[in-house]
Amino acid sequence: MEYEPATHTATDRTLGRLPSGASVTVTVHRYDGGTGPTVYVQAAQHGIELNGPAALRRLHDRLVDAELAGTVVVVPVVNSLAFDHRSYMTPAEYDVMNPNFNRVWPGDDEGSLQERLAAALWDLVTGADAAVDLHTGTADMLEHVRFRTDDSTARRLGEAFGTEYLLTDAPDGDDDSGTFRAAAARAGIPAITAELANSRRVAHSAVETGVEGVRNVLREVGVLDGRPTPAPDRTRLRDDPDATVATASGLFEPRPDVAVGDRVAAGEELGAVYCPSSFERRQTVTATDGGVAYSLTRESVVVAGERLASVARPV
Ligand SMILES: [Zn+2]
């Protein structure tokens, strides 16, 4: 490890072409210091998740003049198609097969548009020693960092990031879900997913969590000097693979006295789905498992199959 003043470059990389012939490009920032590991950081796979890019702009201000041992590679807006449409998913016009960017990793250079886009980024991931994927949850999701339960390096990075809640995936050595985290793990790159609070708007506390979180990861691997600042309280949760879902479509009214972070018991009532026309109660929504509710759907129209609550067991 050898700390040297960072050299910054920003270059555009073409990932693919739209039907019109226009290119899809991303900006890749590199901060090169002395000898040391490489960390890849990306944000905005989902177009309404704005706190990642906002955090990376502030991180830039901290890194341009920093002394680094190693390299930080940053792609602030991975999915410009969804970002420009202000939508979570990529509009189906671009990719009817794979509207969710976070299900196509590691991509395929002969596949659908989004598979090609991901494939054109993948060498940045495999060229890194660790990866951070910044997301933003809804207002009704606990801020947390997620990593694979069987990956001790990713766990170390997740603990360093510094959120109060740490979520581990159910152990599954052969996860081909196409998420960035699973694909990186298969390629032997420890990766964490940070779910900052509040999608659709820039929330300053969430942005600050993102900036400090990435800096903590850089400290943990030695790219930045110093020790990470750990969260004062840490709760580790194992994700429940059976989320509570709507079995009926209609208007969902959650119990007003349940909030994210609350402990709920298996079978506890969380709300109800009503038919807004007939007034009929279509579903009494109950927690599939006991634990900490880390994500809850608020009052809204829901369709059968939609996730209404996620409860994870403390470990
Ligand atoms: Zn996301």
Helix content: 10-25%
Counted by DSSP, the helix tally is 7
- Taken as a percent bin, the fraction of beta residues is 25-35%
Domain count, please report it.
Answer: 2
CATH first level of the largest domain: Alpha Beta
CATH topology of the largest domain: Aminopeptidase
- From the spread of the alpha carbons, the general shape counts as globular
Task: Summarize this entry quickly.
The chain has helices at about 50-65, 80-85, 115-120, 120-125, 150-160, 180-185, 205-220; strands spanning about 5, 5-15, 25-30, 35-45, 65-75, 130-135, 145-150, 165-170, 190-195, 235-240, 245, 250-255, 265, 270-275, 280-285, 290-295, 300, 305-315. It is an alpha+beta fold. It has two domains: about 5-235, Aminopeptidase; about 240-315, OB fold (Dihydrolipoamide Acetyltransferase, E2P) (Beta Barrel), CATH 2.40.50.100.
